[in-house]
Specification:
By secondary structure, the chain is α+β, with helices and mostly antiparallel strands. The chain has eight helices and 20 strands.
Length: 435
């Protein structure tokens, strides 16, 4: 570890390589090892390539899950680890948690680690919730009295008082996660590692967990590593972030810029999406055929200036007459829903049955309305009484750029505007009294 005493995790040139397509291990012992691992849902030890094996990244019969990964984490940091499925996030966390060993490279960790990687890890299914709390505390080196002082707080946070003396094998996945997270957060680890597992819990408990992780970091000075596809949660919780792609670190830095890079690189800006009638989203009543963004020259575009108007065109086919509405949700780069517009605002179609045929609903977004940034659009077609017939997330993905035009809403504010979705140029009246 470096002389910098604030660094609690150092990863240096880390590789993790797996064997692919292994059909026979040639010995009965290894075949039984593999079969038992599959039954128990564990990693097959015979698929691993460890530091004791011949390491060859160019071998076509192997898969490189981590490829020369290096980074540092300082005490008290809350690091978000981003990347789409298959990027190497879970493998990295397993190596850091010592669930699996690296094929090459070095990991240096200072302090006690508690990991919440997936539902089913960390607890003995035959033991009760109470017994598992004490077992986990003992594994962390705490004595019975120390665990007992935390016990009531753990159970209250998990909200499972009635079931604490029930074997955890009878818990629902939500109950299991609530207790597992509560144990991990309250037994005072130096480093807390949390994977996407929180997605199992309900929204209220997820919010509670995020608050606890923030408290663990800010008040207790502990380190948190957090993996999630919820960009809003990452934005609110993490002080910095790291982006993985195909097992490599793409970039590391402030959370907002890393989220923007992740969304841009893995999604790409696109101003139009079209479906054939066979592919069209919807049902036998109505089908969504296309969504597109157009500039003032009526050309499809994915990038606009703040000072440009934008038309969002939704094309759909009505196959059964009904009172349909088109809804567009605007979402920012953190995944937060910003606002909703609906074509019921067009008086012509309010409470009117739409006839069979091809329709276009066009939403006019004025210039100087959206702030600069990236925006995802979710499009849905519904009918009354409320039923959803078609819905497409990330229908289009737009980039709004600020050209610092003097006719814009920026005025004399030259720095980055606060985290707001809109900054409209509205009508003002002025009054002046010399006296």
């Amino acid at each position: 570890m470096s002389s910098d005493t604030n660094i609690v995790i150092r990863v240096e040139h880390l590789y993790k390589q797996y064997r692919l397509g292994v059909i026979s291990h040639r010995t009965l012992y290894r075949e039984l090892q593999t079969k038992w691992s599959r039954i128990k849902g564990r990693e097959d030890p015979n698929s691993l390539i460890t530091a004791d094996d011949e390491f060859d990244p160019s071998n076509n019969s192997t898969f490189l899950a981590l490829n020369d990964v290096s980074f540092d984490v300082r005490k008290g940091d809350v690091l978000g680890i981003l990347g789409k499925n298959g990027a190497g996030k879970s493998t990295l966390l397993k190596v850091l948690s010592r669930v699996t060993t690296p094929s090459k490279g070095e990991v240096k960790i200072k302090g006690k680690i508690v990991s919440l990687l997936e539902v089913g890890t960390g607890f003995h299914p035959e033991l009760t919730g109470r017994e598992n709390v004490f077992l986990n505390g003992a594994i962390m080196g705490m004595n019975k009295r120390e665990i007992a002082t935390k016990f009531d707080e753990i159970v209250a946070f998990a909200e499972i008082e009635k079931f604490i003396d029930t074997p955890v094998k009878r818990y629902s996945s939500g109950m299991y996660v609530r207790l597992a997270f509560s144990v991990a957060a309250h037994l005072e680890p130096d480093i807390l590692i949390v994977d996407e597992v929180l997605a199992v819990g309900d929204a209220e408990f997820q919010k509670k967990c995020l608050g606890k992780m923030q408290s663990v970091s800010e008040q207790d000075g502990r380190t948190v590593l957090f993996v999630s596809h919820n960009m809003d949660a990452v934005q609110r919780l993490c002080s910095s972030a790291l982006l993985l792609r195909k097992g490599k670190v793409v970039t590391q830095g402030d959370t907002k810029s890393i989220i923007a890079e992740y969304l841009k690189s893995d999604t790409g800006f696109f101003g139009e999406k079209i479906w054939t009638r066979e592919e069209a989203k919807g049902n036998k009543l109505v089908k969504l055929l296309a969504v597109r963004a157009k500039n003032e020259n009526e050309m499809v575009a994915a990038e606009f200036k703040v000072t440009e108007p934008i038309d969002i065109e939704v094309e759909y086919e009505v196959q059964e007459e009904a009172n349909y509405d088109v809804h567009i949700y605007f979402t920012n780069q953190t995944g937060a829903h910003l606002f909703l517009v609906s074509d019921v605002q067009a008086e012509k179609w309010r409470s009117t049955v739409r006839p069979k045929g091809i329709h276009k609903s066009i939403c006019h977004i004025p210039a100087n309305f959206l702030n600069d940034g990236a925006f995802n659009l979710l499009v849905a077609i519904c009918s009354s009484p409320y039923s959803t017939h078609a819905v497409v997330e990330n229908a289009i993905y737009l980039s709004i750029k600020d050209d610092f035009d003097k006719l814009g809403a920026r005025g004399s504010m030259t720095q980055k505007w606060p985290d707001v979705a809109v900054r409209p140029l509205l009508n003002w009246d002025f009054e002046y009294n010399k006296d």
